[in-house]
Write a structure and sequence with these properties.
The complex is a heterodimer of chains A (306) and B (368). Chain A has 13 helices and 2 strands. With 306 residues, chain A is mainly α. Chain A has a two-stranded antiparallel sheet. Classes of the chains: A mainly alpha (306), B mainly alpha (368).
Amino acid sequence: MMAELLTTTALPIMLVGAMVGIASSAVGTFLVLRGNSMLSDAISHSIVFGIVIVWLLTKQQSGPVQLIGAALTGLLTVLLTEALASTKRVKQDTAIGLVFPALFSIGVLLLNIYANDVHIDTHTVLLGEIGFVWLDTLDIFGLPIPQALVSMSVMTVLNYAFIGLFYKELKLATFDPALAKTFGFMPSILFYVLLMLTSSTAVAAFDAVGAVLFIAFAIVPASAAYLLTDRLWMMFIIGALISIASSISGYYLAVYLNVSIGGMMAVMTGVFLMLAFLAGPRYGVITQLVKRQRARQAPVEPPPSV
Amino acid sequence: MVWLELLSDYTFQNVVIGASLLGLISGPLGCFAVLRRQSLLGDAISHAALPGICLSFIITGSRDIGGIIIGSLITGSAAALIMLMLTRLSRLKTDAALGACLSIFFAVGIVLLTYIQSTNNASQGGLEAFLFGQAAATLRSDLWVMGSITLVTLLLLAVFWKQAKLVTFDAEYARTLGMPITVIEASLTAMVALAVVVGLQMVGVILMAAMIVAPAAAARQWSRHLGGMLTIAAGVGIVSGVSGATISTLSRGLATGPLIVLTATAIVLISLALAPGRGLLWGVIKHYRQKSALQKQQLLYALYKHSADPSCAPSTLGSRRMLNKLKQQGYLTRSPRGATPSDGGWGLTAQGQAEARRVIAAFEELAS
């Protein structure tokens, strides 16, 4: 029964989509809370550079070497950005806007030069091929498990292991970096590890959804969750639920309309964000309007008579 | 000979003119974006142009540049508006709203792109070129459209120069003067969308962000005035556009967009290092000059005041290079061994003593 389900194409694709969302929104939650969401944009573009370099050095297109290479590229992006910003000659956002297009350009040019040998082309770089994840499988316990599902699961476990181990520290470093520093939690090192995990997740998600759609999976479910709850642990759960829902609904819509599956899943995360924005129980725009209306129409209590 | 041949090449002419137009519009508008701390808004707007391009293709059924421009303007501005709405009406911060708009609009673009591909329209070929730009495919008629957009945008900027400047540097003051700030801010953003549209053909939606940021960041290092900054940014934009396009044509097969972006980045790095006044290299040189001047003063002071004290021997105070330099300048002499055993043979000349007195006087004046 299990084997049957996995050999059909629908389930592996949806599972991979959901896993991409769960792993990315775990790190994305902290990026959103810290106000560094655009770093996911920078990282997801510049890992193209890392992937090509690692490929040139080791001829490996995926696997642990690529994940480590990605982590280092992510770190390089952030360090370059901070180095530029620390000259005080450009602002932080300008520095981001300078670093990642440059790295991305180098990556694309290298792809151009070695186009004949490398199997990743610029099309895959941007869009990914989630529709074909079931082609590349590993046999685990006799079951054909898609390779992408394995690497995404590994990243999910890694991300949540890190968050679980350092939950208290991360929480304090996110909401009160100054206090975290006084306690000796080294918030900046925690943050660097988080960004390295983000880039490894981006590379693992790369084959499935490509560079740009990864941003949607990292930022959008976490943003929607931020509009729905005030609790950190709830943000992870809501982010994961939105990822799963987007993956399933995105898949069926994409098959129905015959369009890009990864793209449709990302669009669905946007739909959920809009829903949270408009109809969230506490901060939703419509909810606020209704509340205000009710407050206005509520009968004014007559002053207690003597 | 190669150059002459190149210059008369029709495609190359188109590419160079297109790249210059792109630099001319993205440089000045990028200045406003960078100064208003909206560097990454250009990134979001350019990614959001993709669904507009696809929509116009679905509606008109062709790659007509007019339709593509209108389409990408509409979706680009819509993305900017939704981003503003998300930050104003919810507790999402700017960065999250930007990232969400960028990725969702791009995703919609991808979905539309694959929808067009699935309908198997024969003339759809080349839509994907807008991802990375396809400078070589630029037509003369495209250039006229790009040129008019650039002209109109720059004219608008010239007409509303004072307002744009005030809103950029002191929005509160502009408000008290009764200027329609929201309208001016919105039009500055819409103009960024126009610049993005001009760049679509040349560098593509993904790298357009760099063309907004890089020329402006480079120009900021060279000028302290808005007018100068805009002019220099336009120049940097044109230079990087033209040289990127040239390298791409000469190398056959290297994408134009990345080359333009890398040229612009190189100019930024050079500006950061060398720009007069702000350049990092000047800072380093100034630091070493000051350090060596201080060492010289210390040495002269010590030799003059404490020549008998062995702990102030010149050989412990200054490096050999420093001592030799001072000797060359005529402040020190190296007497034959044994004048005073502690100073290693170094002593002040008459000129050195005068200089030391001057240093001490200046020091005491500072101390009092």
